[in-house]
Amino acid sequence: MNTHRNQKRHVSPETPVYHPAGEGPDQQPASKRRSARKKLVCIGTSTGGPRALQTVLASLPEGLPAPVLVVQHMPPGFTRQLANRLNSICRITVKEAEDGEIVQKGTAYIAPGDFHMKVREQAGQMVIQLEQSPTVSGHRPAVDQTFESISRLKHYDKVAVVMTGMGSDGTKGLIHLKNEGNVKVIAESKESCIVYGMPRSAIAANLVDEIKHLNDIADAIIDYISD
To answer: Under CATH, which architecture does the 32-225 domain have?
Structure first.
């Protein structure tokens, strides 16, 4: 078991209209519909990301009732080192994602450098798919690719987190998420960002539900997936 030191732990004109999950002819009470749905967390970050990821992932509890997909802009090799280091200090399991593996609750999967990370549903399970299609805005892995991929999952409530990083990667993917499923979006505040580009882009596009200081992001994630 990992050891852990306790730590403290809307829309632009061109954006499609977001239709919240649960609307429609479903006859079950809303509380039962929510409890029956699976949970998924996805985090995108770039410059300053390793420090930010350590703060957030190390504050998540053992037995987290959701998997965590992480896209950190990094070259090949460095993502495995990052995953191994985070795994040594977190209560959840942290690993570099592998093509074809089945996603498990309580585990964070970091996209390998030079691979886009996508997921698909297969026989009721979520399976990771790694690919080397062209870079997106110069990035591979790209947050947009992962966010867009998880938007296609129909039976999950999702939490998307955009943290410190240069540019706007993640914003286009959030449009898909907001339009296709039940998602809550958290952006890191300017106060705690090393580089405010990625969160600022998401906020400017009116796609963010909450803006949180880095130290408060883990608590916000837990609140959403515990609903």
So the answer is: 3-Layer(aba) Sandwich (3.40)
